[in-house]
Amino acid sequence: MKAPLLMRALSSEVNLHILSILKSGAFNPRELARILQKDETDISRRLKMLERAGLVEGKWMRIGKKNVKVYSLKVDEIKISFKPTEVIIKTITDESYQIPMFDRKVPNVNVFFGRRAEIEEITSTTARVIFIYGIAGIGKTTLIAKIFNNAFWYQMSELDSFDYLTWQFGLYLNTLGYSLLLDYLRSGGKNERDISELILDGMETTKAEIVIDDIHKCPDNRIIQLFTYLAPRLQKARLVIISREKINLGLKNVMYFHLKGLSAEDAYQLLRYRGIKIRPEKFAEVYHITYGHPLMLLLFAETYKEGEIRIHNFLDFLFNEIYQKLKEDEKVMLQILSIFDEPLEYEEIKTLYKKKNVFTVLYSLVNKGIVEKRGEAYALHDLLKGFAKELVSIDEKEYYMKYINYLLGRKTAKAFIKAFQYAVKLRDEKKVKELIEIRLRKFKRVIQDFPDSYMQILDQIKDNPYVKGELGNIYFQKGLFNKALSLWLEVKDRVEGIHKADVLSSLVDVYIELNEFEKAEKYLKELKKLLTKTQDLEIQLWYYIQLTKFEYYKNNHKNALESAFKELEIVRKLGPYPELESLVLLHVGDIYIGMGMVREGIQYYSQALETAKAYNLTFSEHVSYMELTKAYFILKDYARAIEYGKKAVQYFIKIRNYRRAIDTLAYRCLSYVGLLKLEEAERDAKEMIKIAQTTNYPLAWAGYIFLGIIKESKGEKGDEYLNLGREKLREYPWLYESVMEEVSRVRRDYFDK
Ligand code: ADP
After folding, report:
1. Residue 152, SS3?
2. What distance in angstroms lies between residue 375's CA and the mean position of ligand 1's atoms?
3. Ligand 1 pocket residue status of 583, Cβ below 6 Å
4. 293 CA distance to ligand 1 centroid (A)?
5. pTM above 0.85, yes or no
6. Average of per-residue pLDDT across 438-466
7. What is the average pLDDT across 416-433?
8. What is the residue-averaged pLDDT of the chain?
């Protein structure tokens, strides 16, 4: 191992984060980039560097006709020992380690005065939740950052949403060794109750310490509900919430702390530190005006001239005084920072501020106490933003446009959403349309991963027809079919190009979902007409996806198969798109099974499995196991069915996808019956009943029927269970029939033996 390279690799926090994620399994750069919300090219470059440093190991896997590189962790720990004559670097395997989050860092506290009583009170409380509130600039952030300097720091903004926050929690808990929440989210899990429970479980198991800063900015009430849920339940973990206003999270286990100014003595020390020498009676006057407000004191120190203290509009006056004294470059920088809602990172500032002296100008503002460094970003204190905004003379539009282009270059979903927000701010409908096209082509997952953040922004210009189409996509994804439908019908003739294709294919999708095949066919034909005018692969793909589904539901298996192969061909032409590729492969498998060609079905399910494994698409991987369970059951290869069934059941229960867990459990249970392993079969049947009682998912009630049959096979009485099962499934006669058909299939086997 090369020591300098190793040290360089470890000095980057993004690299540390990659290493901590690899701890939970092998990953392909693409999926890693998705989890970390970073550009794939950047992640690949970093992985190669980590590989050269000997920290990770890349293996080529062959999937179909392509080679895919998959990375895993090579070492678990690094130990550096200092000896009189040398420094020894040793790597140790099989031990766990933690790293801090890079994205959400605790603000730096360089200078800190006083607050002894406050620190004592906060650190000695037995409440697991601390809610600290007080006016802007009073020192809340500084105090909490001083006390909880190892916590996970979450800075709330007006753009936040429940889905974004929970992903960040998932990533953070994953670095602490708790992967369930991240697994759940990656599989598309959305249930708020599940998420709250998983966060609670994860925080408690890892004894997490989380700080939420500026919660008063939170626009999503579900986040507040989450904290209200957590508050009385936390016992080992710690949650600290910072706010301008008091928000009620209940009484149990919460300490509410109202932060006031610094004591006179500490305020005096602060001024002295800033080089201000002031007579006691003058100081008394200053203290009387500021009440020990630290930010005001700092600004005062910046402007103080011997003997002069102005009282009216103290803060306004202070800020103007300071502003007059700034150099032109500093004024421009200040204005740039004031027109953006969120703190800007150094690279962003560099892009926006055209001149070369970025660093000097920025740090001169930091040293004057006007700009603060928060984690990796720089911001004007909220209290000063208002004043600064009034002085803005630069062209906002020019800066916003520049920022949008910069963000798009980052190629991440998060940056995309931010870019969209600025396009909306500018009310630039052309740009909005352009961004939606980018979303349709490049950021498909935004709709699944961050529907709430995206919707919040779209809602601001919901009269735009292109935006309506997008809102339809979100509603559809949330299962609100009729709402989606009415939006799409309204705009279908008002949008053009790829947008029109999206709306038409969505219409086909929703009508198939609603079992209205004639209407589905009508829009399928319209989509086909559009196809003749374009070479766009994306549009072709959408057409064939819908065509396959349509033919499959109409039981035209041969046509469905032909169309599915067309999909596969286009997907592969479009470049690496493993999520969709493995999905199409699964569909091909389904169609073959529908045609009674089980062996061919298995062949395609296995290909889907390989693709999913290579790209660490955990969800698709387990759906493949589920399908293989069913296929081997049909082939009466019960041992194999059980082998795959075990993997799928365990995973789906873990991520609380009970519908899929039950679908697999049913086949596994019957496979045990087929093998005469009645004890195991009974256990599965009981598990099904247990799930039925909490979820009421119809197929789960078949557990009673299975249990009755198992009891009878053992020579015990089973009718009671059989009757219960029949009763529960009375509303679903078709389901009852198909359950009985599968049962008789294994029973025949059983009696033959
Ligand atoms: P809030 O979070 O309440 O808005 P901050 O923590 O951001 O306030 O504090 C405002 C400013 O005052 C910051 O520049 C910070 O450095 C300074 N400050 C706050 N508390 C102290 C302290 N105890 N000692 C020195 N400086 C402080």
Report:
1. strand
2. 15
3. no
4. 8
5. no
6. 90
7. 93
8. 87
Distance 567 CA to ligand 1 centre (A): 58
Residue range 667-688: mean pLDDT, rounded: 95
Please check whether residues 165 and 281 belong to one and the same domain: no
Same domain, yes or no: 130 and 249? yes
Residue owning the nearest CA to atom 26 of ligand 1: 112
Domain that holds residue 37: 3-92
- Higher pLDDT pick, 8 / 95: 8
Over the stretch 594-639, which tens digit does the pLDDT of each residue have? 999 999 999 999 999 988 888 778 888 999 999 999 999 999 999 9
Q: Which contacts (CB < 8 Å, 24+ apart) does range 559-563 have?
A: 560/591, 560/594, 561/588, 561/591, 561/592, 561/595
Q: Which of 60, 92, 124 is the last residue of a domain?
A: 92
Residue 697 has pLDDT above 50, yes or no: yes
Write the residue with the smallest CA distance to atom 9 of ligand 1.
139
Span 203-246, pLDDT tens digits: 999 999 999 999 988 888 899 999 999 999 999 999 999 998 88
Give 94's pLDDT tier (boundaries 50, 70, 90): very low
Q: Which of 138, 140, 142 to mutate to test the pocket of ligand 1 (most atoms within 8 A of CB)?
A: 142
Pair (168, 210) in one structural domain = yes
**SS3 of 588-657:** HHHHHHHCCCHHHHHHHHHHHHHHHHHCCCHHHHHHHHHHHHHHHHHCCCHHHHHHHHHHHHHHHHHCCC
Ligand 1 pocket check for 261: Cβ under 6 Å: no
Model confidence band, residue 135 (pLDDT cutoffs 50, 70, 90): confident
139 CB under 6 A from ligand 1?
yes
**Beta carbon of 142 within 6 Å of any ligand 1 atom:** yes
Residue 101 has pLDDT above 50, yes or no: no
Could you tell which of 295, 366, 367 is best to mutate to test the pocket of ligand 1, judged by most ligand atoms within 8 Å of the CB?
A: 295
- The answer to whether the beta carbons of residues 561 and 588 sit under 8 Å apart is yes
The domain boundary residue, chosen from 92, 124, 153: 92
Q: Whose CA is nearest to atom 5 of ligand 1?
A: 139
What pLDDT band is residue 23 in, cutting at 50, 70 and 90? Answer: confident
* Any atom of ligand 1 within 6 Å of the Cβ of 295: yes
Residue bearing the CA closest to ligand 1, atom 19: 139
Q: Rounded to whole angstroms, how far apart are CA atoms 511 and 165?
A: 34
Cβ atoms 271, 173 nearer than 8 A:
no
CB distance 115 to ligand 1 below 6 Å: yes
Span 295-311, pLDDT tens digits: 888 888 877 766 665 55
Structural domain includes residue 531: no
DSSP track, 315-376 = HHHHHHHHHHHS-HHHHHHHHHHHHSSS-EEHHHHHHHS-SS-HHHHHHHHHHTTSEEEETT
| C-beta of 294 in contact with ligand 1 (< 6 A) | yes
| 299 ligand 1 Cβ < 6 A | no
Residue 732 located in a structural domain: no
